[in-house]
Amino acid sequence: MPQMLLPIFPSDLTLINEKIGFQKKDGRVYYFNGMMPIFSHYEKDLPSFRFITAQLVVLGNATQAQIVRSFGISTISMKRWVKRYRQSGPAGFFEKPRRRGPGVLSKAMQQKVQSLLDQGLETPGIAKELVLKADTLNKAIRDGRLYKAKKKRPR
């Protein structure tokens, strides 16, 4: 998934519409309804940003177009956040993303690969021998499901 650019939060008060505005101060973003602050989050806290902007839309305090214009985000991102809010509520923005389990590398296959790694074989050779993708093995090594001994460098 492509990395989303962080929204730009100017330091001065920016109006989203005639009722709702936001302002960045000391690394935090504050949202206002009239003069009353209604929410704040750290500048780099994307889940909170997504949550509050979706909530503003769902509750009828701002339109998607106003949010898109005010923060310079894409229309499709705004639509996705509103959909997530409607389906899961606030919790949908703060739960850990669900990841698929290790479908290709079953326990038996993992043990077979580990024994070949222990013998000093390289991942491309193992992948070819066991008809797997080298990326699958490299990912398992990065995730800590497989262990690859570090090569010793001559001094």
Tell me about this structure.
With 155 residues, the protein is an alpha+beta fold. Helices cover 42% and strands 14% of the residues. The protein has helices at residues 46-58, 64-71, 75-88, 107-118, 123-130, 134-143, and strands at residues 14-15, 20-25, 28-33, 36-42. It has a four-stranded antiparallel sheet with strand order 1-2-3-4, with helices on one face. Strand 3 and strand 4 (36-42) form a beta hairpin. The protein is elongated and about 70 Å long.
Brief summary:
It contains six helices and four strands. The chain is α+β, with helices and mostly antiparallel strands and 155 residues long.
* Overall radius of gyration: 24 Å
Strand order in the sheet with the most strands: 1-2-3-4
Would you tell me the overall average pLDDT?
89
* Proportion of residues in extended strands: 5-15%
The class by helix and strand makeup works out as alpha+beta
Helix residue percentage: 40-55%
Molecular shape: elongated
Straight-line N-to-C gap: 41 Å
Give the strand tally. 4
Q: Please give the count of helices.
A: 6
As residue ranges, the low-confidence spans are none
Q: Could you describe the largest sheet, including whether it forms a barrel? A: 4 strands, antiparallel
Oligomer: single chain
Short key terms for the protein model shown above:
155 residues; alpha+beta; 4-stranded antiparallel sheet; 14% strand
Give the helix/strand layout.
Layout: E1 14-15, E2 20-25, E3 28-33, E4 36-42, H1 46-58, H2 64-71, H3 75-88, H4 107-118, H5 123-130, H6 134-143
Antiparallel strand pairs: 1-2, 2-3, 3-4
Helix pairs in contact: 1-3
